[in-house]
Amino acid sequence: MTEPVDRLPQTRKTYDSAVFEHPDAAPLDLLRQWYDEAADHVREPNAMTVSTLDEWGPSSRIVLLKGLDERGLLFFTDYDSAKGRQLQADPRIAVNFPWQDMERQVRIRGLAEVAAPEDSDAYFAVRPRGSQIGATVSKQSQPVTSREQMQTEYDAAAAELEGRDVPRPDHWGGFRVRVFEIEFWQGQQNRFHDRWVFRRADGGHDVADLDDASAWEVVRLYP
Ligand SMILES: Cc1cc2nc3c(=O)[nH]c(=O)nc-3n(C[C@H](O)[C@H](O)[C@H](O)COP(=O)(O)O)c2cc1C
């Protein structure tokens, strides 16, 4: 059984994975491989923590990964939410996949770009209708007086949109996380974990395609 909160110093799991040797794949291949392995063991493998910045410092929340290719990671949100506004003012972003059930995490640093409208349209169109209406009505991260208020607004929108497709609202869409650093972490015995970080081969911090092997060098880090 997991220890209760008053036994935090005694709460620990031991890790005992196969040694994670020098990866010879490009970061995209390795991330795809780890994602597919997580998909067999983790309840929501596409849940990732994203951290953004404003004048007061960083803040973090979970969003769902909805696309992955050489350009980076795609997720969807409200552009007027706290994170949406923060990213449009300062695109610096960090992402973490907490795949503890695999004794793994993946850490990413990069820059967020507003996704192409066609990409947002395409994903919005396949969302369940209830989610489409919810996104239309929600003013994410703004105060609301009550749950009843939200429901009243939802019901009004649902009635108004009855019998027709829900158009994607302008305030809702994707961000694509372009990457300049990505670390793969595998837990090991004695807290002597394996860490391999892909950094830009030229020593810089410009984002690069994840399938471009020449753009990356991989370095082992002390745990
Ligand atoms: C498992 C999980 C998945 C979530 N997925 C999303 C998502 O894909 N997009 C989103 O905007 N919020 C998602 N949320 C809600 C966010 O964590 C957050 O509460 C919301 O986006 C407001 O964040 P902000 O005020 O920092 O902008 C998810 C929450 C959880 C727990």
Share of β-strand residues: 25-35%
The spatial strand order of the largest sheet comes to 1-2-3-6-5-4
Architecture (CATH level 2) name: Roll
* Tally of strands: 8
The CATH topology name reads: Pnp Oxidase, Chain A
Tell me the structural class: alpha+beta
The CATH homologous superfamily is called Electron Transport, Fmn-binding Protein, Chain A
Whole-number radius of gyration?
20 Å
Q: Outline, from the CA principal axes?
A: globular
N- to C-terminal distance: 27 Å
Mean pLDDT: 97
Bound ions, cofactors and other small molecules, one mention each: flavin mononucleotide
Instruction: Give the uncertain stretches in residue-range form.
Output: none
Helix-strand string: HEEEHEEHHHEEE
Q: How many distinct folded domains?
A: 1
Helix content range: 10-25%
Binding site for FMN: 61-66, 76-77, 83, 105, 140-141, 185, 195
GO molecular function, one term: pyridoxamine phosphate oxidase activity
Family: Belongs to the pyridoxamine 5'-phosphate oxidase family.
Cofactor: FMN
Question: Could you outline the blueprint of secondary structure elements for this entry?
Answer:
Layout: H1 27-39, E1 47-54, E2 57-69, E3 72-78, H2 82-89, E4 92-97, E5 104-114, H3 117-126, H4 129-137, H5 147-160, E6 172-186, E7 194-200, E8 216-221
Antiparallel strand pairs: 1-2, 1-4, 2-3, 3-6, 4-5, 5-6, 6-7, 7-8
Subunit structure: Homodimer.
Pathway: Cofactor metabolism; pyridoxal 5'-phosphate salvage; pyridoxal 5'-phosphate from pyridoxamine 5'-phosphate: step 1/1; Cofactor metabolism; pyridoxal 5'-phosphate salvage; pyridoxal 5'-phosphate from pyridoxine 5'-phosphate: step 1/1
Cofactor: FMN
